[in-house]
């Protein structure tokens, strides 16, 4: 039974083994955060050669899958970009991007151009950014590139836009796979979104009280409970452990770095990796700007994290239905493109 077809990027080729990064939708059971049993993965190279791949690592939170493939010939590889400045909408540089995807045909390449857009994806994952490129489901897992040839993200499918995980998040996840065999995130209990994605009327009120503020705004408090948390819905977080950030993606990247550093220190000390054996695993200090009625203040709040976020059950990754986009003028069909 055919499960799914998508695109991917070879990010490393070492000692005859290629490392292909793609979407976990390739190996995921429908409507379940589980890998399909007795899975066979075929990797179709641009030359038309088909190699058998093996699943190395999967994370359903970011919907990332790493496939290893053996090859007797050198496979071209290109890493994700670690640059975060491309996603700063306060800068005046070009936001032109291109999404790439593959069919199984020899030397086939699907290309869709567009721009980065300063709005939030409809998907749950907070770190996702959005481009106006229009891709099909075959383009899922493919690279998003700037016009300088840098891979700045990995694409997912939506009808009217293309959500993507930024390249710097992808690099951190791959490092976690290499160091720990999984991606480790702190279960801090906050759902946030980038501040500039808030409604204009809300932003105007915020900037009257806190001019020039940037960061994330808290949308939901889940753990331990809203009534016991010092951080409330509507609070603005600007720093984590003294490190400033301007978006939910950068916020998530800092937390990945914090968890990675903490786990490496535990490994050096020979401590077990059972995350629940310590009363407090990580203490996260957030610089918070709050407004309660007419009272506003700047403060530091601490959340003690004693668990890490599981790989699945946090974010949904719908693929949507296939549809046709037709351009008709004066009753004449000029173009017809299938998406999905």
UniProtKB/TrEMBL annotation:
<dbReference type="Pfam" id="PF13365">
    <property type="entry name" value="Trypsin_2"/>
</dbReference>
<dbReference type="InterPro" id="IPR036034">
    <property type="entry name" value="PDZ_sf"/>
</dbReference>
<dbReference type="InterPro" id="IPR009003">
    <property type="entry name" value="Peptidase_S1_PA"/>
</dbReference>
<protein>
    <recommendedName>
        <fullName>PDZ domain-containing protein</fullName>
    </recommendedName>
</protein>
């Amino acid at each position: 039974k055919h499960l799914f077809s998508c695109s991917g990027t070879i990010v490393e080729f070492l000692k005859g083994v290629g490392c292909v990064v793609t979407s976990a939708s390739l190996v995921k059971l429908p409507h379940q955060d589980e890998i399909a049993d007795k899975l066979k993965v075929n990797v179709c190279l641009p030359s038309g050669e088909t190699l058998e791949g093996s699943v190395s690592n999967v994370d359903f939170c970011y919907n990332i899958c790493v496939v290893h493939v053996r090859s007797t010939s050198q496979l071209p590889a290109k890493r994700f970009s670690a640059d975060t400045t491309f996603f700063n909408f306060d800068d005046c540089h070009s936001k032109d991007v291109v999404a790439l995807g593959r069919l199984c045909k020899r030397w086939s390449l699907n290309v869709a151009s567009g721009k980065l857009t300063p709005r939030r994806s409809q998907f749950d994952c907070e770190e996702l950014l959005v481009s106006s490129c229009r891709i099909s489901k075959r383009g899922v897992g493919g690279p998003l590139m700037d016009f300088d040839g840098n891979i700045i993200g990995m694409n997912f499918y939506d009808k009217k836009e293309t959500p993507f995980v930024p390249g710097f998040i992808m690099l951190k996840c791959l490092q976690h796979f290499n160091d720990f065999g999984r991606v480790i995130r702190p279960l801090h209990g906050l759902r946030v979104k980038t501040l500039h994605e808030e409604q204009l009327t809300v932003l105007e009120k915020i900037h009257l009280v806190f001019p020039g503020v940037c960061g994330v705004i808290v949308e939901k408090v889940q753990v331990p409970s809203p009534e016991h948390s010092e951080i409330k819905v509507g609070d603005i977080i600007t720093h984590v452990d003294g490190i400033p950030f301007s978006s939910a993606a950068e916020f998530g990247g800092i937390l990945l770095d914090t968890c990675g550093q903490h786990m490496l220190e535990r490994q050096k000390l020979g401590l077990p990796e059972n995350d629940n054996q310590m009363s407090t695993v990580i203490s996260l200090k957030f610089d918070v700007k709050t407004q309660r009625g007419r009272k506003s203040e700047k403060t530091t709040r601490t959340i003690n994290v004693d668990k890490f976020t599981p790989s699945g059950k946090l974010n949904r990754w719908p693929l949507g239905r296939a549809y046709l986009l037709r351009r008709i003028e004066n009753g004449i069909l000029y173009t017809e493109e299938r998406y999905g």
